[in-house]
Amino acid sequence: GAGVSQSPSNKVTEKGKDVELRCDPISGHTALYWYRQRLGQGLEFLIYFQGNSAPDKSGLPSDRFSAERTGESVSTLTIQRTQQEDSAVYLCASRDRGRETQYFGPGTRLLVL
Amino acid sequence: AQSVTQLGSHVSVSEGALVLLRCNYSSSVPPYLFWYVQYPNQGLQLLLKYTSAATLVKGINGFEAEFKKSETSFHLTKPSAHMSDAAEYFCAVSHNTDKLIFGTGTRLQVFP
Questions:
Q1: Are residues A4 and B43, on separate chains, in Cβ contact within 8 Å?
Q2: Three-class DSSP category at B110
Q3: Is the dihedral of CA A49, A55, A60, A66 positive or negative?
Q4: What string of pLDDT tens digits covers the 112 residues of chain B?
Q5: Does A41 lie at the interface with B, CB-CB under 8 angstroms?
Q6: Is A35 part of the contact surface with chain B (CB cutoff 8 Å)?
Q7: B97 to A103: CB separation less than 8 angstroms, yes or no
């Protein structure tokens, strides 16, 4: 079946601009996660949605970062007033209810000039 | 709090040699442990996971890992490296189905 998809695959923006990244989870997966992977570093957790529960936003690095998810479908991660340190690969993952495994999308590579 | 340490950011082996990638974790609760592999310009693919069942876990592509509670380790091994194993490998820990906490990754190079 179809895996997690993300768009765009690459995004180049200028410092100060807003960007929106999209994630389409595996159909039926109730949980959705966003992670960030900066060059030469591991993955950092950003935010976690589980069904209709309040999202876990504990990993968002600043108030310039926000994310939304409509029901159990698409999620968008928005970065306002982008900074050069926001340059990274943003990875989305989804997980089925009651299962442990997170399935990752291919990521969006963001470059802030 | 949970954390993961991967010793060795780069590991090089010859084709056919043993692969050993080290992972140590810290967790105040029984952990779930994962190894993911990332090929260039691709997302992460699950290699194997430990979720409190058998301590020796077998995964895809001939990889396996052993959960050792006394050593707080979950090292990844493969008896014989193949050129196609060249990639970046990430160890991760979670509590139940919560967010994953990742190590900084180990880049594996395989030489002919």
A1: yes
A2: strand
A3: positive
A4: 789 999 999 999 999 999 999 999 998 788 899 999 999 878 899 999 998 778 899 999 999 999 999 999 999 999 999 999 999 999 999 987 689 999 999 999 999 9
A5: yes
A6: yes
A7: no
